């Protein structure tokens, strides 16, 4: 399949290159920040506002869990260490809570109106992380051992399930018609997220996955929940379906841009920044966008990569491969154009997300915040 048949997106990877072969850990070169609607300090303030308003409600929700699930969840969120001592762990980027609060402002409501939505989306997101880490065999998240490594697989499953149940409680206990509408959007997004995880796992055992299949999977796994995050606050604030649907479209394409950057970091990211092992996605045999794009490109590097990955399928233990072998695969992906194609796809999805906002009238400061967060999502190291 030729990637240039996908429409007005990035070029065929066989026709593009990159000047950073073999480099690791640099900021992903996607959207330039010079013309951003807000500077980095403004984005930091938006993310911090999301944390400040959502975290107390999130903690209160987690406190409802029966022991030891409350403790296990607190460890996962970075509030305590493995021995139960208070900790200041890395709680993640907090993009989803920030979007939920801005979403409420898009409906003309105070940002606080979006807090239950922000908390519900964070609970679903972390439900997925707990399960994903176990299914993927990830031993590190946010520079710490994952829950299943510390507390065992059973607790990772149970606590993940409990967080999903809490997410629905947080919304439904508001008891308003808007809460019912918001919960429907959350459950629909969660089902799509689970579909995406199922696709992701199934693709690991296939020699070939099309770019269209990969984008569909990533739209489900990442785009759906970001779409929910940026619409749920508006729904709670009384927005009509057209406004919420438009914000969802922005969030969906932003999610695809977000995941494209994650896919780049999953191969070339600096472990000190990402909190994961070197060549993380290659160790897990993920059919991420750079891999899929490289395989679809054709040419010598693509064919050699396909041969190596087909041979790898007979080996279940990633430890059987040396660092040099993973590095060689990453170099072939880059030579075939998979790295540059994915960076271009992140740019394209970013553009589609921003253009979606033209369908509704937004206060200037709300639009500026959404543009600034979109820029942040695609220019990052972790």
TrEMBL record:
Region of interest called Disordered, as start-end residue ranges on this chain: 1-38
Record's keyword terms, sorted: Magnesium, Metal-binding, Transferase
Gene Ontology terms describing biological process: isoprenoid biosynthetic process
CDD domains: Trans_IPPS_HT
Annotated InterPro entries: Isoprenoid_synthase_dom_sf, Polyprenyl_synt, Polyprenyl_synt_CS
Pfam families from the UniProt entry: polyprenyl_synt
Ranges annotated as biased composition (Low complexity): 7-38
GO molecular function, one term: prenyltransferase activity
Family of this protein: Belongs to the FPP/GGPP synthase family.
Record protein name field: Dimethylallyltranstransferase
Organism of origin: Streptomyces tsukubensis
């Amino acid at each position: 399949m030729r990637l240039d048949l996908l429409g007005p997106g990035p070029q065929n990877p066989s026709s593009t290159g990159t000047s950073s072969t073999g480099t690791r850990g640099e900021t992903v070169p996607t959207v330039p920040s010079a013309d951003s609607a807000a500077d980095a300090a403004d984005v930091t303030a938006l993310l911090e506002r999301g944390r400040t308003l959502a975290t107390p409600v999130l903690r209160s929700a987690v406190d409802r869990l029966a022991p030891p699930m409350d403790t296990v969840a607190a460890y996962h969120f970075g509030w305590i260490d493995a021995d139960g001592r208070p900790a200041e762990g890395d709680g993640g980027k907090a993009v989803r809570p920030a979007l939920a609060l801005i979403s409420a402002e898009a409906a003309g409501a105070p940002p606080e109106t979006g807090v239950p939505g922000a908390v519900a989306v964070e609970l679903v997101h972390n439900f997925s992380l707990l399960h994903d880490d176990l299914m993927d065999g990830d031993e590190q998240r946010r520079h710490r051992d994952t829950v299943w490594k510390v507390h065992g697989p059973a607790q990772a499953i149970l606590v993940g399930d409990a967080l999903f149940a809490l997410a629905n409680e947080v919304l439904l206990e508001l008891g308003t018609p808007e809460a019912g509408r918001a919960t429907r959007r959350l459950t629909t997004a969660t089902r799509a997220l689970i579909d995406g995880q199922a696709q992701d796992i199934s693709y690991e055992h296939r020699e070939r996955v099309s770019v269209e299949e990969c984008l569909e999977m990533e739209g489900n796994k990442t785009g759906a929940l970001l779409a929910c995050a940026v619409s749920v606050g508006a729904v709670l604030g009384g927005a009509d379906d057209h406004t919420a649907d438009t914000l969802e479209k922005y969030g969906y394409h932003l999610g695809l841009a977000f995941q494209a950057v994650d896919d780049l970091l999953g191969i070339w990211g600096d472990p000190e920044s990402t909190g994961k092992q070197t060549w993380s996605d290659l160790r897990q045999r993920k059919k991420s966008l750079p891999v899929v794009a490289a395989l679809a490109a054709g040419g010598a590097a693509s064919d050699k990569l396909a041969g190596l990955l087909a041979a790898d399928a007979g080996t279940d233990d990633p430890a059987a491969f040396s660092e040099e072998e993973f590095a060689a695969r990453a170099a072939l992906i880059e030579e075939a154009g998979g790295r540059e194609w994915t960076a271009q796809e992140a740019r394209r999805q970013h553009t589609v997300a921003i253009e979606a906002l033209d369908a509704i009238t937004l206060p200037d400061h709300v639009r500026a915040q959404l543009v600034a967060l979109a820029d942040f999502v695609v220019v990052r190291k972790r």
